[in-house]
Amino acid sequence: MIIRGYIALLIATSSAAYSLLAAEGLMPWEKECPENYEDLLRIEVQIQKHLSKTKSAVVSLETEDGAGSGVIVSAEGLVLTAAHVIGDRGKKITAILSNGKRVSAVSLGGSVFSDAGMLKIENEAVLPYVNLAKVKDSSLGNWCYALGHPGGFDSTRGQVLRLGRIIGKQDETMQTDCRLLGGDSGGPLFNLNGEVIAIHSRISQQAEENFHIPIETFVSNWDFFMSDEFYNAQKLQEGGFLGVASSLTPEGLTVLGIVEGSAAEKFGLLEGDILRTLDEEPLDSREKLAILVSNKSPKDPVVLELSRSGRLLTFRVPLGSRVNQE
Amino acid sequence: MNHLASFLFVLACAFLPSVLASTDDSLLETPLRLNGIRVQQAFGQTQNIAQNATVKLLRNEKVIAHGTVIDPRGFILSKASACIGARYLLTDSGIRLPVKARKRDEACDLVLLEVIGGGHEWPTLHWSDNNDSTDARWAISASPELDEIRLGLFGGKARPIGREGGVMGVVLSDDNQSERGIRVLEVIPQSAADRAGLKTNDRILKIDHRSVRSKQQVNHAMQKKDPGDLLLLHINRMDDAIELRVTLGHRSVTFDLFNRNLLMSGPTSKRKDNFPLVLQHDIPIHHNNMGGPVFNLEGKCVGINIARVDRVTNFALPHTVLYPILRDWLKP
Q1: Architecture of domain B179-245
Q2: For residue range A129-171, what is the model confidence (pLDDT) as tens digits?
Q3: Do B179-245 and B37-161+265-329 fall under one CATH topology?
Q4: What are the Cα distances from residue A32, in Å, to A22, A48, B39?
C-alpha cells in the first residue's frame, strides 16, 4: 500500500516517472497485464506459495439438500459460505475438513439479498483458518484463484484450483472469470496473497463470468450474521419500507432513485444524496440499509443522516410499508 | 463423485443487481481477462509452439478431435474414441492433409495417425518429463480453431481414474425377498434399457442365463461389463416370460440428463473413465478438442488432453503414461 500511495503522489508531478516506477514497484500480478515469461512464472510461484495454507481452511459442506463449500476464517471454526447453501439459521450441517475429517457444524445467519451466509464448526479444538483481505482492497483486474469442491467432496481428487481475474465488482456482487460448478457454492476466492476476497455464489450461463459475494458484504453485516439473523425474501419484504434505490459509489451509498409515494419521497430525499447513517449505524452497503429497514416496523421513525452537495443533513423519517406501495 | 445434489444458482434471483450485466464499461475489458489476447501475448514463443503442435482432425468436414504432432516424420497422437473415422487433418496454418490410423491402445484410448504423403515440415515436440510438480502450474493448449491459445491451471490431484462400467439405466427395487425376480422401479429415458424395451414393473429373472435374486447380484453381474457389451435379460412382465437384449450404455451419458452440473457443462467426452493416471486442468476447451497437447509455461509438452469431464475439469494423460506406448509405436 505504501508503494501505491507513493506512486499516486508521483502521478501529479511526472507521468514518465510514474510509468518507470510502476514497472519496477508493482508485483507482476499488480500490473495491468503480465507482459512476459518472468511475470507469468512469478504469478505461478505466488499461487503455489499460499496454496497449501489456503487449501487447509477450505471445507466441503453437506446439508439435507445438497453439497456446497465454505472457508474457515477463525481458529474457533467460523465458516463463511453462501446463504443458499445453509438455507436458514440453526441448521445442522456436516463439514468435511481438508484432511477428510467430518465434523458437525450449525448455521448462523445470512441473507438472500447478497447470498452471504455463516456457520460455526462445533467442538473442534484448533482449526486451520485464513485471513480476510482488507475491505476495499480488491478491485477490477486483480488476479485471484478459486478453491472448492465442485460436485461434492472427492478425496482422490481433492480440492479443485481455478485461476482468473476480477472482471466486475459492484455492491453485493463480484464477478470473475474463474470457472465454477455446483458444489463450489460457498467456497472461497483468494487474492494472490492468500487472503479471502469473496465467496462463490452463482454460476452464469457464460462459463467465464461467474458471481461471488465480496468480503465487504460479510464485513458490513457481520454482527447480524453472527447473531443468527437470517434474512430470507419474506423477511426482507416485511418490516418498514423507505423507498430508495441506491448503489455503493466511491462517495458512499448513493441514492439512484426514489419510489413514488414512499417515505423517502414524502421527506424529500433526492437522487444523488449520499446516505451516511441510519439510527447511527453506518451505511456501508445496500444490504445493510435493507436489513436495518426490514428490522423496523412500518411507521417506526428512523433517523437518517445524509450528505447533499457537501452539506450534512439529518432527517427523522417514519417508515412506510411495502404493502401500501402496491 | 458425490451422490448429493450440488448447489448452484443458475440465474439471478429477484433481489440481485442488474448493474454488472447492463453496464459493460464497469467490466474488465476482454483482452485483459484470463483468456484475453493481451494475457496470451505474454506467453510469447509458447503460444506458437502450442498452435504448431496441434492439428484439427476431420470427419466429413467436421472437427471431431484435435491431435498432437509427436514426431517430425508426420505422426499424430490423439484420443482414439473421439477420432474414429478421421480422414484428414488441418494444421494451424490451414493446410489439409490425409491421415491414416496406424496403431491403437484401447487401455489409454490412444490412436497413432500417420500423415499420408510427405512434403510438410512438422515441428519437433519437446516433452516435459517432470510430472510430479504440475500442481498449480500454468496449463496451455491451442484454442479450438488453433488461432489462439487457451489458459488454465493444473489443479486437483494427479490420479488414476477407475472404470465406470456399462449401465442399463434402471432403478431396481431393494426388496430381496421376491422369488419372482428383481422389480424395475424406473427406466431412465433414452437409456440402454429403454431402447431395449424394458418397462417399469418388469421383473428381472436372469442375466446372461444366470438367475439373480437380489439387486446386489444384478450389480455384481454389471461390474464386469463395459459400455457396448450385450446383456441378455430374462424378464417376467405380467406373468409373461420375455427375453430382451440390452446393449449397455456409458454411465455418464445415461445419467447426464439428470445431472445439473453436466447440463451446465455442455457436451463432455463419452469416455472419461478408466485411465492409469491423469492430470487435471481447467483450460476452456470443448469435447471435440481432445487429443491435442497441453504445455507448461516453458513450452514443454506435459501430456495430451484425453477427456472433457465438466465445465471445470479436463483430464490429460501425462508423459509418463504416453512414453512407453510411444516408444513401442515409434521404434525405428
Answers
A1: Roll (2.30)
A2: 999 999 999 999 999 999 999 989 999 999 999 999 999 999 9
A3: no
A4: 10, 21, 10
Give the span between the Cα atoms of B35 and B143, in whole angstroms.
Answer: 10
- Nearest CB to B34: which of A36, A115, A163? A163
Find the length of chain B: 332
Check if the beta carbon of residue A325 is closer than 8 Å to that of residue A266. Answer: no
CA neighbor of B34 nearest in space, from A229, A54, A40, A112: A40
What are the start-end ranges of the H helices in A74-203? 83-86
Q: How far is CA A128 from CA A156, A190, A266, in A?
A: 21, 16, 52
Q: Does A160 touch chain B (CB under 8 A)?
A: yes
Q: Hey, what's the cell of B94?
A: 490451414
Q: Assign a CATH topology to domain B37-161+265-329.
A: Thrombin, subunit H (2.40.10)
Instruction: Give contacts of A186 with chain B, Cβ < 8 Å.
Output: 7
On the question of pLDDT at A183 being above 60, the answer is: yes
Give the gap in angstroms from C-alpha B30 to the nearest C-alpha of chain A.
9
Beta-bridged to residue B303, according to DSSP, are B294, B318
Q: Is A171 on the interface with B (CB under 8 A)?
A: yes
Predicted local distance difference test score (pLDDT) of residue A98? 95
Architecture of domain A34-231: Beta Barrel (2.40)
From CA A189, how far away is CA A179, in angstroms rounded? 11
Three cell numbers, residue B105: 491402445
> pLDDT tens digit string along B123-148?
999 999 775 668 899 999 999 999 99
- Distance (Å, rounded) from C-alpha A209 to C-alpha A178? 7
Interface ipTM: 0.87
Q: Which secondary structure element, helix H or strand E, spans residue B309, and what is its range? A: strand B301-310
Letter string b/e over residues B95-113, b meaning 16 or more CB atoms within 10 A of that residue's CB: eebebebebebeebbbbbb
The C-alpha atoms of residue A274 and residue A251 are separated, in whole angstroms, by: 7
Residue type, A280: E
Are A207 and B26 a contacting pair at CB < 8 A? no
Contacts 24+ apart (CB under 8 A), B102-107: B102/B75, B102/B329, B103/B329, B104/B80, B105/B80, B105/B325, B106/B80, B107/B274, B107/B276
Domain ranges of chain B: 37-161+265-329, 179-245
DSSP letter string, A3-33? HHHHHHHHHHH-HHHHHHHHHHHS-GGGSSS
Helix (DSSP H) and strand (DSSP E) numbers for chain B: 8, 21
DSSP notation for A242-257: --EEEEEETTEEEEEE
Distance CA A211, CA A104 (A): 28
Q: Which of A18-22, B64-68, B143-147, B293-297 has the lowest mean pLDDT?
A: A18-22
Residue B240 carries which side chain, given as an amino acid letter?
D
pTM of the model: 0.85
Query: In A, which residues are within 8 Å of B152 by CB distance?
Result: 162-163
- Rg of chain A (C-alpha set): 21
The helix/strand/coil state of B239 is coil
Q: What is the domain class of A238-325 according to CATH?
A: mainly beta
